[in-house]
Amino acid sequence: MFKSLLGDNTHFLIPLYSHMSCYPEEHNKYPHRFRPPLSLNHTPISLVAVMRLKVVCQPPYKSTEEEDDESTTTKMSDQYATVQKGSLKLKGIGVVSAGKKKKKKDKETKRLEQQINTNRNEEEETKSGYIDKRTPAQIAFDKMQEKRQMERILNKAEKTHKRRVEVLVCRNYRGDVDMSEIEHFMPILMDREEEGNLSPILAHGGVRFMWIKHNNLYLVATSKKNACVSLVFSFLYKIIQVFSEYFKELEEESIRDNFVIIYELMDELMDFGYPQTTDSKILQEYITQEGHKLDTGGPRPPATVTNAVSWRSEGIKYRKNEVFLDVIESVNLLVSANGNVLRSEIVGSIKMRVFLSGMPELRLGLNDKVLFENTGRGKSKSVELEDTKFHQCVRLSRFENDRTISFIPPDGEFELMSYRLNTHVKPLIWIESVIEKHSHSRIEYMIKAKSQFKRRSTANNVEIHIPVPTDADSPKFKTTVGSVKWIPENSEVVWSIKSFPGGKEYLMRAHFGLPSVEAEDKEGKPPISVKFEIPYFTTSGIQVRYLKIIEKSGYQALPWVRYITQNGDYQLRTQ
User: Fold this and answer.
1) How many whole angstroms separate alpha carbon 492 and alpha carbon 472?
2) For residue 243, is pLDDT > 80?
3) Which of 182, 204, 302, 471 sits most deeply, having the most CB atoms within 10 A of its CB?
4) Where are the beta strands (DSSP E) in 121-197?
5) Among 510, 349, 324, which residue's Cα sits nearest to residue 417?
6) Residue 6: pLDDT band with limits 50, 70, 90
7) Packing angle between helix 107-127 and helix 136-158, nearest 10 degrees?
8) What DSSP designation does 368 have?
9) Is 249 exposed, middle or buried (0-12, 13-18, 19+ CB in 10 A)?
10) Annotated region Disordered: where (predicted)?
């Protein structure tokens, strides 16, 4: 049953907690990777829910007047929290129940009202002719202190907000976990978040909650059995993928507009706690978003659901048979302020777009180091792939025997495999920064960007994000190439270079004014981040040696291969 979800080749899955995961017999044979157990007794999911956190704000203070309304209606208070000329007004949306109840002030209420009265008295003194004898620096400092005080007050007021959980979709597959158990998830999550001890697995009694967050939604799976955590999380991410392909964006509005289809999908995705059909292309054949007239003589539901090759339908025909193969590598890099590389790795993937008729078999050959050593070509240029993950269509047994990637591909676009290389990577775009800060007046930047790849290659759409102080103003820029833009809401400068050839070096200078009283820098200096894309180039040196297409009709197909290197988490720290 797992074939439709992950196949028998989930090498990338790692057990998050040993007491929640199962180690199959294959783990001893292949210790470098982990597979979910073949026994279904170890992986039941009891309940899956999609929920959101709704914040209902209670006003931090109430009027001393009694509410003498005998009706049972509910009054909504709509007050606004703004700081205007030193006066404090608080905004919240709260539910105040009517009835003969006296509202007593607490200590926080009294303190807030005293602060408001004090600020109002200061405004009245100013209007009555009071002359402020403070220097401009003292006024700026007092305003900053007042702003921080207001922020502290507002932060305390936010703690009075009531957080209410709203379950949008919930499906109980096994019945061994009560539906009310899902209500315990969010309070536990909030408590852990306040303690700074968040975990992807939470517990309440004998129930385990495994959760992920997507946009403003929480996807939660529960289990009372010894569940394979890796498979549970993979299933939750698969739900996101399927829903996104159906509704474009997975968010609260799309869920509310498609309740019926979502429950149909959840019934097909899982049966009695075990993953079933999770291929969106197969699901779209019989779970449609458009109505149609019932035809008793029409075609039956697709046989691909029960076929051995469930990911591909029969009878596919194309006038022109083509295969497009993209090798995409992302470079993750972290460089210290002294210029030392602290972390570097390459995360790659091979994506395909298949437009082939019939049921073809494809064989893909790479310059794999293990293959070259086995065939006596150890001196040839090869790549040692790590943490390899394949699509379910790949015949894993054959890959283990002779390192040949053989498969019957799905129709259309899919990711064939992904890999990782934990190796030293030379920075493709090197950044040197000199920052001169003149006290209470200005700050100057000199940024030098140098491309350290071959001259025949060119980086496209390069963006260098340089952090600047939050209170900086009056920007001035000068650059040898490209354009520079200041984004004050992000406190950064973006230097954009459309085309950056290899072996080139460019310079950018920036000047900012600073206020006389500077804000305290408690969070440290953010690093410089770089975005880029280099076509026809791979950092690891991986190559597609051949792509053979075998089909019983013997037609000729055109294979196309493209290489792309792009940035991943690419950061360089500053002095």
Assistant:
1) 10
2) yes
3) 182
4) 162-172
5) 349
6) very low
7) 150
8) B
9) exposed
10) 99-128
Closest alpha carbon to 565 in 537, 546, 526:
537
In which residue are the tokens 């019983």 written? 552
Token pair 């003589």 in the structure block, residue:
297
Quick one: average pLDDT of 86-96?
34
Q: What is the DSSP string of 20-80?
A: T----THHHH-TTS----S-GGG----EEEEEEEEEEPPPS---SS-B---S--EEEEEEE
- Sequence letter at residue 131: I
| 189 vs 542: CA distance, rounded Å | 43
- Burial annotation 144-167 (CB, 10 A radius, 16+ → b, else e): beeeeebeebbeebeeeeeeebeb
How do residues 356-396 score in pLDDT, each as one tens digit? Answer: 999 999 999 888 776 655 555 555 577 888 888 999 899 99
User: Regarding beta strands 505-513 and 492-501, do their DSSP bridges make them parallel or antiparallel, or are they unpaired?
Assistant: unpaired
- Which residue did the predictor score with more confidence, 312 or 466? 466
Within the chain, which residue ranges are assigned CATH 3.30.450.60?
Answer: 2-54+164-292+299-305
Three-state DSSP class for residue 489: helix
Residue among 501, 434, 498 at smallest CA distance from 464? 498
Q: Residue 269: phi, psi to the nearest 5?
A: -65, -35
CATH code: domain 322-425+539-572 is 2.60.40.1170
DSSP character at residue 5: T
Q: How far out from the chain centre does Cα 573 lie? A: 23
> What does the angle CA 158 – CA 163 – CA 166 come to, to the nearest 5 degrees?
150
Tell me the one-letter amino acid at 428.
L
Say if CB 548 and CB 313 are below 8 A apart: no
Residue 499 near residue 541, CB atoms below 8 Å: no
CB 358 within 8 A of CB 551: yes
Residue count of the chain: 575
Backbone angles phi, psi at 494, to 5 degrees: -115, 115
Q: Which fold has domain 2-54+164-292+299-305?
A: Beta-Lactamase (3.30.450)
Is residue 497 classed as helix, strand or coil in its secondary structure?
A: strand
Alpha-carbon distance values, 448 to 444, 506, 508, 527 (Å): 13, 6, 6, 15
The CA–CA distances, whole Å, from 226 to 56, 157, 229, 401 equal 37, 42, 9, 33
CATH class of the domain defined by 429-533: mainly beta
Sign of CA dihedral 244, 249, 253, 257: negative
What is the phi/psi pair of residue 152, to 5°? -65, -40
CATH 2.60.40.1170 segments of the chain: 322-425+539-572, 429-533
Among candidates 353, 357, 350, 275, which has minimal Cα distance to 313? 357
Structure tokens that stand for 470 in this block? 């939050």
Rounded CA-CA distance 428/332 in Å is 11
Coil, helix or strand for 558?
Answer: strand
325: tokens are: 């193969």
- What's the rounded Cα separation, in Å, for the pair 261 and 267? 10
In this structure, the dihedral spanned by the alpha carbons of residues 258, 261, 263 and 265, taken in order and rounded to 10 degrees, is -130
